[in-house]
Amino acid sequence: MRVPPASVYFPAEDRETILQQIDECLATGQLTLGKYGKELEDRFAAYIGVEHAVAVSSGTSAIEIPLRVLGVEGKEVLVPANTFFATAAAVLHAGGRPRFVDCDPATMSIDPDDLRRAIGPETAGLVIVHIAGLVTPAINEIKRICDGAGIWLFEDAAHAHGSAHAGRNAGAFGVAASFSFYPTKVMAGGEGGIIVTNDDRIAEEARIYRDQGKAGFLTNFHTRLGANWRLSEPHAVIALSQFGRLDQFITHRQRLADIYNAALGGGDLVTPLVVPEGARMNYYKYVAHLPDGVDRVALKQTLRNQFEVGLSGEVYDTPLHQQPVFAEWADRPLPGAERLCDRHICLPVSAVMTDEQAEYVVDSLRAAMQQVQ
Fold first, then answer.
1. Which residues have C-beta within 8 Å of that of residue 82, sequence separation ≥ 6?
2. pTM exceeds cut of 0.90
């Protein structure tokens, strides 16, 4: 494919260091909960600007564990409809009940007005998701709504490594936050995730939960119903390597976005997602809204088959209240999420994509749109 939808990037010198460090892990036998996991936690917490980071096995467990600590069992947790399955699934696995909230298509995040309507007497908290890497400009308003209603705000920041609003990093707005190191993310650990928080109790409990609920690493005295949610040392080594290049990766993605914005900003072809002033977006995804009447499936097939351009997956193509697995909790239409999920595409972007490839994507998009309109 001439332009793949995404690419994972490990420079040769990084691969050499990774292999040396993994060999050290193999030689010493320290394959989990070792020094590399601790280094990742310390550096990531400092980067986000919080007191604690707890490395875990996945971005999904990085949501479920804090929800267990926050005591959601038997309670309602508000979740945006336009997010990945794992956000709502983590609520259910932690014993809570998801209630889906509509989004503002302009920001791809929670609609503050619908949030106010959705809060009820059994609501424990809100999981906000920084879709595509954008922290909504309404984040402070949303935090005030939560505080006023006496509910907590938790951030699913799986997309948002290095993103920020008004100088404050994603992950530093709520009672805690989760990040993912899945291979598609801006920094890839292969697998893994991390919890960040300023709350001492959440951090302490998270360390217990991630290790089968044991009170300590060297004991078999179990105090919580935990699971094997540890991050292995090899995965920590890989994530650390990528973390060292995070700002470099973001700068590269932003340059590609500038090329797209310059070519598409007039809105005659598609309408790019607007990044508000004061926001830092990592461009995990480059989102553009389609005009009415364009068949997205046909457009993607044309780009792939005729131009060898792969569009990355949407964020997302089916809102959660329309997913069969969540039918029990789908109690109302959510028009903002439904329209957003149906009417956008994500153009290719990665740490190794070239300026020339970005320009080719724009030319190919223009030609493909003429065929499918």
1. 103, 108, 129, 131, 315, 316, 319, 320, 337, 340, 341
2. yes
How many Å separate Cα 93 from the centre of its chain? Answer: 19
The torsion defined by the Cα of 58, 61, 63 and 65, in degrees rounded to 10, comes to: -140
State which residues of the chain have pLDDT below 50: none
How far apart, in whole angstroms, are the C-alpha atoms of residue 175 and residue 188?
25
Domain count of the fold of the chain: 2
The backbone torsions φ and ψ at residue 152, rounded to the nearest 5 degrees and listed phi first, read -90, 160
Residues 231 and 310 in one domain: no
CB 349 within 8 A of CB 272: no
Same structural domain for residues 224 and 272? Answer: no
* Cα→Cα distances 85→22, 92, 130, Å: 32, 11, 15
Strand partners, 77: 98, 125
pLDDT per position as a tens digit, 277-287: 999 999 999 99
Residue at 95: amino acid letter = G
Supply the range of the domain harboring residue 57.
12-243
**CB-based contact 176:195 (threshold 8 Å):** yes
CA–CA separation, 21 and 34 (whole Å): 12
C-alpha to C-alpha distance for 233 and 25, rounded to whole angstroms: 7
224 shares its domain with 207: yes
